[in-house]
Amino acid sequence: MTSDPSTTQHAGAPLFGAPAVVRLDNLHVAWDTDLILHGITLSIPAGQTVAITGSNGSGKSTTLKALLGTAPITSGDAQLFGRSITTRRRVPWKKIGYVPQRISSGGAVNSSAIEVVRSGLLGPRRLWAMPGDTATAMDALERVGMAHRAHSPMNILSGGQAQRVLIARALVRAPELLIMDEPMAGIDAASRARLADIVRDAKGAGTTILIVLHELGELGPLLDRELHISAGHISYDGTPHIDDDHEQHHGGGDHCRSSESTAPSQGDHGLVSGIWTGDTHD
Questions:
Q1: Is the distance from CB of 265 to CB of 104 less than 8 angstroms?
Q2: Which of these, 281, 276, 225, 274, lies nearest to 67 by C-alpha position?
Q3: How far apart (Å, rounded) are the C-alpha atoms in residues 46 and 249?
Q4: DSSP readout, 13-40?
Q5: Has residue 279 got a pLDDT over 80?
Q6: Residue 159 half-sphere exposure toward CB, CA atoms < 13 A
Q7: What is the average pLDDT across 84-105?
């Protein structure tokens, strides 16, 4: 494991000394009395495409929740673009696009695809749509191959189609950092191939990309770096293991005392345009 990945060259990484877009410093997260993350320290420089991997309950999705301010940090710090999420109003959320694993059951699932994408342009300082938003949203849908379903209700789309709409919602704000939570989960081969194309395009545009994955799959060749979390710790930080059986390579059996699935589910609740900007209640 490298001592400071933000100043160490990785395959496909940006130039030496690139500033950290994402930084975790001795991060600890606990749900009630269950400690999920134990002293996570990492940094991701601008332009890297990084996967966080691990088995169910290892803490990988909790790491994203901590970055977005929806998991209770008990000690340490999480920073985005050099701003601590403990002072959320100073975090440049407009630079960040977030793709949740799925639409929460309480979400606006009857909204049309273009309405969902257009919501990605809103925020605490921009509460209403503006002229040109529909055209911008349509462009984002075109990028993910969903322009033809712009006016379809979200609740009639397939899992892969709905996921692409959520990606378009994140991309519509032209983010410098794209965060995706298990985008490969529950989608078919064609949707996975399309997702790989979307990630390839974003990577080519210089976007920093952080993706939680259970396995690398079609995204493996696009990754610069893999961070494997085991029982709340980083157990591997380096070149992606594209050809390895993931659980065998990392030993498997990496479970926390409490599975991530048992932690309080936030979904999109409390998020503005998919980005948390308020206070947690945990």
A1: yes
A2: 276
A3: 28
A4: --STTPPEEEEEEEEEEEETTEEEEEEE
A5: no
A6: 12
A7: 84
**Nearest 5 degrees, angle CA 29-CA 33-CA 39?**
30
CA distance linking residue 246 with residue 53, whole number of Å? 9
Element (H, E) at 198: helix 189-204
Distance of CA 77 to the CA centre of its chain: 18
Question: 3-state class of 255 per DSSP?
Answer: coil
In whole angstroms, give the CA distance from residue 20 to residue 150.
36
d(CA 163, CA 39): 32
> Would you call 75 exposed, middle or buried from its count of C-beta atoms within 10 A (0-12, 13-18, 19+)?
exposed
Tell how far CA 154 is from the center of its chain.
21
Which positions ≥6 away from 262 have C-beta within 8 Å?
A: 31
Distance CA 93, CA 272 (A): 9
Taking a C-beta distance cutoff of 8 angstroms, is the pair 273, 80 a contact? no
pLDDT at 254 over 80: no
Residue 247 has pLDDT above 60, yes or no: no
The encoded tokens of residue 92 equal 């440049």
CA distance 220 to 201: 15
Q: What is the pLDDT of residues 191-232, one digit of tens each?
A: 889 999 999 999 999 999 999 998 898 999 999 999 999 988
pLDDT of 161 strictly over 80:
yes
Pair type for strands 208-213 and 177-181: parallel
